[in-house]
Amino acid sequence: MPNRAVVPITVEGLKTACSQCNLQELCLPYGMSEGDINQLDALVGARRKVKRHQHLYRAGDTFESIYAVRTGSFKTDVLLEDGREQVTGFQMSGEIIGLDGISTDAHSCNAVALEDSEVCVIPFANLEEISREIGSLQHQFHKVMSREIVRDHGVMMLLGSMRAEERLAAFLINMSQRFTARGFSAAEFHLRMTREEIGSYLGLKLETVSRAFSRFQENELITVQQKHIRIRDIDGLKALLSHLPNV
Amino acid sequence: MPNRAVVPITVEGLKTACSQCNLQELCLPYGMSEGDINQLDALVGARRKVKRHQHLYRAGDTFESIYAVRTGSFKTDVLLEDGREQVTGFQMSGEIIGLDGISTDAHSCNAVALEDSEVCVIPFANLEEISREIGSLQHQFHKVMSREIVRDHGVMMLLGSMRAEERLAAFLINMSQRFTARGFSAAEFHLRMTREEIGSYLGLKLETVSRAFSRFQENELITVQQKHIRIRDIDGLKALLSHLPNV
DNA sequence: CGGCTACTTGATCCACTTCAAAGTACGTGG
DNA sequence: CCACGTACTTTGAAGTGGATCAAGTAGCCG
């Protein structure tokens, strides 16, 4: 596990490294003083590489740090005793993982890399300490947590009130937006997760996900080749979301 | 709207008033100094009464404060353009409402009183300022937010992976635990929400909720009389959660 | 090339929804 | 205090979206 100390931190380096990070809004742009930069130095403890299919943490692990995804992507899931899995989210670069652990000082879900990935380890005690001194960091962190709560409400809406094709359309639109925000194509991207993982996230079986993809392709909304997706008619997809179930 | 200033704050009074509050863990027990108490004075801005079926806030409202439920209970929900409603949670005394607003400085859901209720208004700017000075308050607040995220994951599990009777059993067990934590009977309680609201929360139609209640009654797990519930076999309910769907 | 994992597609089934009709509690005004 | 209206709940019967079961296919990697 390469320790942070190994990689000398420079302001330039940070700006590059963290340019897509969810925490950037408070770390960098707001004219941090030299002293602030030194504190930031204390904030990010280390980087950690996680290979595909490896756990970043498991349910039950002691909580010490939250993580910012630098490269790659993750899924978080909850397991029931009988083996049922619920994927609670997919995380891409710049997104924060691990907030579930603050509540009880132990993680309540699993975080697994979908591809070879790297995270910034942010010891939570450090974050709390520094955010007591830098108000903008404190506020930004609160926004990150709140955003997670709002996102979760959206997933509840999806799981509780939408039909299969609406759920998949919402998922594709969301992925497209997140790729766009990272400077990738809005129309063409590569999904890192399996049909089963998408299904688990959307509360559907993998066959249903597959059939919905096929239906979208028939209707010329998208082109599917395994995990490679090309969106041909984003408005058509969005239209699926604004219709009543039986109209 | 009675302002806080109207009700003189005393340490005794606070201990009584906040004895069931989620924020109590940091406000009260940790031997706050006289100075801390004065700061607390600045934290809780006012109390606000909300009548049954009235909104505490609506989606789109500017975010300024979070709320601690003093008496009564609330639901929070998200509405789709076509009228579909997803209830995202039910809140009882001591629980915090409004965390969704931090993210964008505007609320993203509606909060509606299920009965005549009263909340403590906590201006969020105050909370951030004071929590920069009192570390235990800061940490407690982070725990409250994290707990909300963990709870949301549980609801996703419920909506995405459980069948109707499992969902209702999980709901009843959860309600029972929360009533117990408030000093009420674990076995007998009055639901403040309608079958339709329970159904919306659980991703089911009201008829399905009603049928599941009836089935539980047939199986002597509970007694139902409209909104009055008596749990006769809590272990039987719990057993419903640990079984495979087809076993 | 062989073996594996992931994906697609068809046929059948069933849990939950939808539609419909009563029944019950409750508040209000006469 | 009763009559009536309203909102909520229960229950039945029929319909359907997605699950399940079952092949078969495509891509990947050692």
UniProtKB/TrEMBL annotation, chains A, B:
Signal peptide extent: none
GO cellular component term of the entry, any: cytosol
SUPFAM superfamilies: cAMP-binding domain-like (SSF51206), Winged helix' DNA-binding domain (SSF46785)
Gene3D superfamilies: Jelly Rolls (2.60.120.10), Winged helix-like DNA-binding domain superfamily/Winged helix DNA-binding domain (1.10.10.10)
InterPro entries, alphabetized: cNMP-bd_dom, cNMP-bd_dom_sf, Env_Response_Regulators, HTH_CRP, RmlC-like_jellyroll, WH-like_DNA-bd_sf, WH_DNA-bd_sf
DNA-binding is among the record's keywords: yes
Keyword terms, alphabetized: DNA-binding, Transcription, Transcription regulation
Residues covered by the HTH crp-type domain: 162-235
NCBIfam families per the UniProt record, alphabetical: PRK11161.1 (NF008365)
Listed name of the protein: Fumarate/nitrate reduction transcriptional regulator Fnr
Protein species of origin: Denitromonas iodatirespirans
Designated gene of the protein: fnr
